[in-house]
Amino acid sequence: MISFKLSSHQQQVKDVVHWFAENEMRPISLEADQMGRVPDDWLQKINQLGIQLNTSSFGEEQKSSQKNGNGKKEKSERQANRLAVIATEELGWGDPAIALTLPGPGLGGPPVQSSGTPEQKERFLSIFSKDEPPRWGAYALTEPEAGSDVSGIRTTAQKTNGGYILNGQKIFITNGSRASWVVVFATIDRSLGRAGHRAFVVEKGTPGFRCTRLAEKMGIRASETAELLLEDCFVPEENLLGGESYYENRGSGPSGFRVAMKTFDNTRPIVAAMAIGIARAAFEYTWDLVRKEYPKHGRLYHLASEKLARGQLEIEAARLLTWEAAWKADIGQSNAKEAAMCKAHSGKIALEVCAGCLELLGPAGLDGQIVEKFYRDAKIFDIFEGTNQVQHLITARHLYEPHGVRV
């Protein structure tokens, strides 16, 4: 049974992260948006304080236990995914661009954690526990010709003595330029389709691997979004995620495509939670202003209250969808459908709630104000980690495939 009441540990995580979002993130939010980057001195300060709030770092080993009817403790239950969505909602409330820029493995963490060998986990994840300097990881899947349909990636991996030669281009890579390493997806043979996909950890400074451009964006401006180029880039075989044995004699089993999809099942609820945080921040700011400025019991007050009530309904529904997806991941059940549903709904309502708030605020919400910024930020949550249309397709597959119908 799912409990809708946070445990004492979950509430503590929520409170600590909210304090950080309110006191450290929000004060620099507009400045970072205008600069197009998070100030280096702020990142250095956060790193020196030992604050690790990257979305992949919450409660990886945290477990909860509950007492049964006889007063005895039942089997402990993993809660890393639930802690991640609880905390990430608060980071999204603070500022999504800054949240995406916090030092840590980022989206590169889940595939290394779930598919890497023990040696690879130690090698690539241990660097984030050190105090100096701040470090980042990244995740490179999207290409100019393979966005929503990631099965069509064209980056190639040619086997050679001691490793692979990678050639290709990746786009829209969060923290791609500053990352110490990037999980790069490539194909060993395009004729194999998804079964030919492999995941490699490519380290910064590797010859033939470089950033060609940093994108200028409408929203999440402070977050770095890079284009990466691989030209005859040699990657040693020990950087093949999972190692050769992970792919041998398994047919169309755990290819790099499966690694990517498994990653999305874990990260889509996190993206959904951040979108919920954005919607909640805009809602709370607007509701506070409506209560103070609108004449009580007047027509405008009632119209505003109705619009805000609809927004609150959507926020609560999105949160419950997201919690369910995270809970299923924690107990080891397939959550692909729930991850797709919560991501689709949360991205949609973040835009709708922010737009509704701007309508109510009028000029007070524009010209560099926080709600206008959140509105610009919200759009990407309808796109990255798979567009809304892709999430609907995934949901439809889970609806029809039990009945023998392929979508």
From TrEMBL:
EC numbers for this chain: 1.-.-.-
Region (Disordered): 54-79
Top-level taxonomic group: Bacteria
Polar residues bias (residue ranges): 54-69
Keyword set, alphabetical order: FAD, Flavoprotein, Oxidoreductase
Matches recorded under InterPro entries: Acyl-CoA_DH_CS (IPR006089), Acyl-CoA_Oxase/DH_mid-dom (IPR006091), Acyl-CoA_Oxase/DH_mid-dom_sf (IPR046373), AcylCo_DH-like_C (IPR036250), AcylCo_DH/oxidase_C (IPR009075), AcylCoA_DH/ox_N_sf (IPR037069), AcylCoA_DH/oxidase_NM_dom_sf (IPR009100)
Family: Belongs to the acyl-CoA dehydrogenase family.
Full protein name: Acyl-CoA dehydrogenase family protein
Organism taxonomic ancestry: Bacteria, Bacillati, Bacillota, Bacilli, Bacillales
